[in-house]
Design brief:
The structure holds two protein chains of two kinds.
Chain A lengths: L31 H18 L1 H10 L4 H20 L1 H11 L49 E7 L1 H13 L5 E7 L13 H12 L3 E5 L8 E2 L5 E3 L6 H17 L4 E5 L10 H17 L3 E4 L1 H4 L10 E3 L4 E3 L10 H19 L9
Parallel strand pairs in A: 1-2, 1-3, 3-6, 6-7
Antiparallel strand pairs in A: 4-5, 8-9
Helix pairs in contact in A: 2-3, 5-10, 6-7, 7-8
Chain B lengths: L5 H17 L3 H17 L6 H20 L3 H38 L17 H17 L7 H9 L1 H4 L7 H9 L9 H32 L6 H32 L17 H7 L2 H12 L9 H19 L3 H25 L10 H23 L3 H13 L10 H12 L5 H12 L3 H18 L13
Helix pairs in contact in B: 1-2, 2-6, 3-4, 3-5, 3-6, 4-5, 6-8, 9-10, 9-17, 9-18, 9-19, 10-15, 10-16, 10-17, 12-13, 13-14, 14-15, 15-16
């Protein structure tokens, strides 16, 4: 906004403008037909160069028309490139540019970007392995802060960011391991059990906060990509619950504690029955296993009548907590959720209340 | 539909073909372009195409009502009614949640019980941008600066997909005359268009997306866990991120329009090379700055009616500009801070003109000091813009001076390189880039296509995986 410019918008009459878009002196223009050749060649050649990566992205998509069409186009392209040795060449170029071609989403262990590196703990914890009943969380000190790991999908990324605010830096190390678009259904895309094994071995977390399942409304496959249980069939619920149980066991195998943060109700009510089943599975596993507790996000953030609401009232203050997509939370929502989870840990496992704010 | 996606690439090739095929026949070409633009918009959420159509309908009906009135008072009343009707959807979609929360909490503070319906209103992408263009059209008709366009031209003016979701805010006299004259298919400035599109993609995908994940999000997410150097670099990185993100988007929009034979106004002109905040606003989001000037600041009285009124007008304009960016108090404070900067700048200019304040010496050192001071002020304001609350912004600003001596693991070489790359572009001379574009323009289609493919491959491989939305989509 300036004050030293003309006060009135200049009155410009309509004028024929046919040549205004032509290039200035020194640059040559090109007829539209040739520009189309440039565009098509540029996009198709890029598609060929980027085909291995596009194929990996397509494979990661949930089953559906888009995935089927993408793979129907990309499979033969990659097959030809494999035969011609081009894939290796492209992978080498990709690696030279700093990206590992087969790197899992969000980076590998000790990964990059918004995923924290996993710190190694020189000596294993003194806590018993495979606890038989609930134990309490040790009292943190500034010399030996608690190690809290946040794992899961984009919702876990959200709570991870705000967990850092809620837990006091002097007493708690927060290790964010959330990865977007992941879940337990597709270990061929991102293998959460393998990742959890590494997290436990390398970081010995005192507390693991899990928020997973938002992307699991699809058939269960094995790490090799074979179908294990078709969604919508009777095989699915027990197979899914088994995956949840195995994951929780893994997370507590070195004596750590787990809070399984349940999924909130989304705005789209068509998704409710599936998510309610998921929450039942999470709760049952938490009830069965020691050192695992289930936090009921659905009920906490529902409207008085049980429906979806984007607002949360803590008795004093109204806050808009849900993101526009009707699935995720906004910054205020994640902060409130994380505070409630921290209090819940105190209630369940006697976490020292001085470890967090609010 | 997002620009840096394969969906858009396929869409654009089809539209490009249809556009140049039908361009000679406006009766077919215009409906085709409107339909294409509505598909582009509806790709995100088809329901909101009705909103776009409704805003277009209201705008044209209001413009006709304004144009038919000859009596000044009635003409003004028709304009006021038209602007109110045009802006009403924007106010509802953008500010309902903000209003609900603040009114409820304020009432609770005073012991009152207020219970507005707790509706979650989802902000349609681009609604601010096409509403601003609609208001510009209405006001220009009222002022007699522009003639009534045809219904079809008005619908196309507001929905034209290159500018639809995040600008630039194109004025009626810049775009509508281009819609009524056949575009010339013989001399497309393809070199410049590709330069803008690929450069914009590089800024967005490689620099902005990388800085967001590597340093900006962690630092703004929890200032208390970061050292002073990290806090400073995080703030500077955000300045680079938002520039690369937004200017990258508008470069792509301008390049895409250019391939269709249309010329859009420039939206950024090396804003971080500015030597004052006033100059910064002449270089940053230039189409919004002039919109605020022509349709808000001047109607408020502009530079007329004395110094106190100028300061008031500047503050009101910038506070509303802040609120336009988002329904949250930290945006309002950001706008207020810029209003204060501009007011002080205006006051100093007045003192200098009156000879009460010495002009600074015109030396290179002074110029660089002025640039550094301006950049610092802008960065302080960006902290309020990016943070999720005023409290977080103040905590981060405090962190820049209170946490020296702590480890700074986020300060990696790639982060510093990306920041430097974003800042260096502000000071590069124009001539080498112009020579490069001239050389590109001399390439034949096949070598140019291969160049485009290789550069695209480099961009998509260097950038983080996934498609991050543009920052300005939310505004």
């Amino acid at each position: 906004m300036t004050t030293d410019t003309k006060e009135r918008a200049t009155k410009e009459p309509r004028r024929p403008d046919e040549q205004a878009d032509a290039p200035p002196a020194g640059r040559r223009g090109m007829p539209a037909g040739r520009v189309l050749v440039v565009l098509l060649l540029g996009i198709l050649l890029w598609g060929a160069l980027y085909a291995p990566e596009l194929k990996r992205s397509s494979e990661a998509q949930p089953e559906g028309l888009r995935r089927t069409v993408s793979l129907a186009i990309l499979d033969p392209v990659v097959w030809v490139e494999d035969r011609l040795g081009l894939t290796r060449l492209i992978d080498n170029a990709t690696q030279a540019l700093g990206r590992h071609p087969n790197e899992p989403v969000g980076g590998g262990v000790g990964g990059l970007q918004d995923v924290d590196p996993l710190p190694s703990v020189p000596e294993p914890g003194n806590t018993p392995k495979h606890p038989q009943r609930d134990t309490t969380i040790r009292i943190p000190t500034s010399a030996k802060p608690l190690r809290v790991v946040i794992v899961g999908d984009s919702l876990a990324q959200g709570i991870g960011s705000f967990a850092e605010r809620v837990f006091k830096p002097s007493l708690v190390d927060v290790i964010k391991q959330g990865r977007i678009s992941t879940g337990l259904a597709r270990p061929d895309y991102f293998n959460w059990p393998a990742q959890m094994r590494l997290i436990v071995d390398r970081s010995h977390p005192d507390l693991t906060i899990v928020m997973l399942g938002e992307n699991d409304a699809q058939s269960l496959v094995t790490p090799g990509g074979q179908l294990e249980a078709q969604i919508g069939t009777g095989d699915f619920p027990p197979a899914y619950e088994q995956r949840v149980r195995s994951f929780a066991r893994l997370a507590t195998s070195e004596g750590g504690h787990v809070i399984w943060v349940g999924l909130p109700n989304p705005r789209d009510t068509k998704r409710w029955p599936f998510i309610e089943h998921q929450n039942v599975a999470f709760r049952e596993v938490a009830d069965q296993l020691p050192n695992v507790a289930f936090f009921d996000t659905w009920t906490t953030f529902s409207a008085a009548g049980g429906g979806y609401t984007a607002y949360y009232h803590d008795g004093k203050r109204l806050t808009l907590v849900r993101a526009d997509d009707g699935v995720h939370f906004n910054a205020d929502g994640y902060t409130i959720l994380m505070r409630l989870v921290a209090r819940f840990v105190t209630q369940q496992f006697k976490l020292d209340p001085r470890s967090y704010e609010g | 539909m997002l620009f840096p996606t394969t969906d858009f690439a396929i869409f654009f090739c089809l539209v490009f073909l249809g556009h140049w095929w039908l361009n000679h026949n406006p009766r077919v070409w215009k409906p085709f372009m409107i339909a294409a633009s509505y598909v582009f918009y509806g790709w995100w959420n088809w329901r909101y195409v009705f909103l776009l159509a409704a805003v277009s309908l209201i705008t044209q009906a209001s413009a006709i009502a304004v144009d038919h009135q000859r009596q000044p008072k009635r003409r003004t009343a028709a304009l006021a009614l038209g602007v109110a009707a045009t802006i009403a959807p924007l106010l509802y979609f953008k500010y309902y949640g903000f209003f609900t929360v603040n009114v409820t909490n304020a009432a609770t503070t005073f012991g009152l019980h207020v219970a507005p319906p707790l509706i979650q209103v989802v902000l349609p992408v681009g609604v601010s941008f096409y509403t601003f263009m609609a208001i510009a059209y209405l006001v220009d008709i009222y002022r007699g600066d522009f003639e009534i366009a045809s219904w079809v031209d008005l619908f196309l003016y507001l929905s034209f997909f290159p500018h639809l979701v995040a600008g630039p805010i194109v004025r009626p006299n810049e775009l509508i005359p281009q819609l009524v004259v056949r575009r010339d298919p013989r001399h497309i400035d393809v070199a410049d268009a590709m330069w803008l599109i690929l450069g914009g993609l590089f800024k967005k995908v490689v620099i902005a997306n990388y800085l967001a994940g590597a340093v900006v999000d962690p630092v703004f997410g929890d200032p208390a866990r970061h050292s002073s150097p990290e806090a400073i670099v995080g703030i500077v990185a955000y300045a680079v991120q938002i520039y690369c993100d937004f200017s990258g988007y508008t470069d792509i929009a301008i390049g895409v329009a250019k391939l269709l034979g249309f010329r859009f106004p420039q939206n950024f002109d090396r804003p971080y090379s500015a030597r004052s905040v006033q100059e910064f606003w002449r270089r940053w989001h230039m189409t919004l700055s002039r919109w605020l000037r022509d349709y808000l600041y001047i109607p408020l009285g502009g530079n007329r009616k004395g110094t106190a009124r100028i300061y008031r007008n500047l503050m009101i304009t910038m506070l509303l500009g802040g609120l336009w960016h988002g329904a949250a108090w930290h945006f309002v404070v950001w706008g207020g801070l810029h209003g204060a900067y501009l007011t002080v700048g205006h006051w100093k200019d007045g003192k200098r003109e009156a000879g009460q304040l010495a002009e600074p010496p015109e030396t290179a050192l002074v110029h660089w000091m002025q640039r550094l001071a301006t950049f610092t002020l802008v960065c302080i304001a960006w902290t309020l813009f990016r943070a999720d609350s005023v409290a977080t912004a103040l905590a981060l600003l405090a962190r820049t001076v209170t946490a020296w001596g702590l480890p700074s693991p986020l300060l990696t070489r790639p982060v510093l390189l990306a920041i430097s790359a974003g800042l260096v572009t502000q000071f590069l001379p124009h001539r080498p880039a112009e020579r490069l574009r001239a050389a590109l323009s001399r390439l034949r289609p096949v070598p140019l296509g291969v160049t485009v493919a290789v550069v695209l491959f480099l961009i998509t491989t260097l950038g983080p995986r996934g498609v991050a939305p543009f920052i300005y989509f939310q505004f």
